[in-house]
């Protein structure tokens, strides 16, 4: 089997070892860089330990938190007192640790989390890979949601024949879900 080496997108040398995948406004942009170009790249500021070949999860999360804070730059003073009603975790604790206390924290801090996530991904909805063990269920739920929205639009525009077809498709998928 022949080994294929990627070329650096910046300098053109063979042996690009850093693969960067960005999602900007819903579009996936892939870049390959050699280690020298990656060290010089200003956009990779949060990858300080690139020279060691190790990037800690803490560094990545801190970079994400910094970015979210930057996007929400002038967050109102009430954020200081913002607390999850389920576990008592505060938004300030999230900013310090990069972790949330429970699943309800997402709802409690949504107004501060969503803009940063939306800016990074180009969407509020997950658009990346879906793990195989839960993939079928997630894809089915997405399809049901899409068809429900389509059905509503068709009924609103009084396209009843098309709406009936979509309704039947939706019914089949909902039966599969149950």
From TrEMBL:
Secretion signal, residue range per the UniProt entry: none
One biological process term in Gene Ontology: stress response to copper ion
An example molecular function term from Gene Ontology annotations: zinc ion binding
The UVR domain, residue ranges: 141-176
Pfam families noted in UniProt: UVR
Domain of life: Bacteria
Protein known as: Excinuclease
Species per Swiss-Prot/TrEMBL record: Inconstantimicrobium porci
Upper lineage: Bacteria, Bacillati, Bacillota, Clostridia, Eubacteriales
């Amino acid at each position: 089997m022949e080994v294929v080496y990627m070329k650096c997108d910046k300098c053109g040398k063979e042996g690009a070892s850093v693969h960067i995948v960005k999602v900007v406004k819903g579009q996936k942009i892939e870049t390959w860089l050699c280690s020298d170009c990656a060290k010089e790249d200003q956009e990779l500021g949060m990858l300080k330990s690139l020279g060691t070949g190790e990037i800690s999860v803490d560094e990545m999360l801190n970079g994400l938190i910094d970015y979210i804070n930057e996007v929400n730059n002038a967050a109102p003073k009430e954020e200081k007192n913002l607390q999850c009603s389920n576990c008592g975790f505060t938004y300030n604790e999230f900013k310090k640790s990069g972790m949330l206390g429970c699943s309800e924290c997402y709802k409690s801090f949504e107004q501060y989390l969503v803009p940063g996530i939306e800016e990074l991904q180009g969407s509020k909805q997950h658009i990346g890979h879906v793990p195989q063990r839960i993939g079928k269920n997630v894809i089915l739920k997405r399809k049901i949601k899409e068809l429900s929205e389509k059905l509503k639009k068709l009924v609103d525009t009084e396209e009843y024949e098309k709406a009936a077809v979509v309704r039947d498709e939706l019914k089949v998928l909902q039966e599969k879900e149950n």
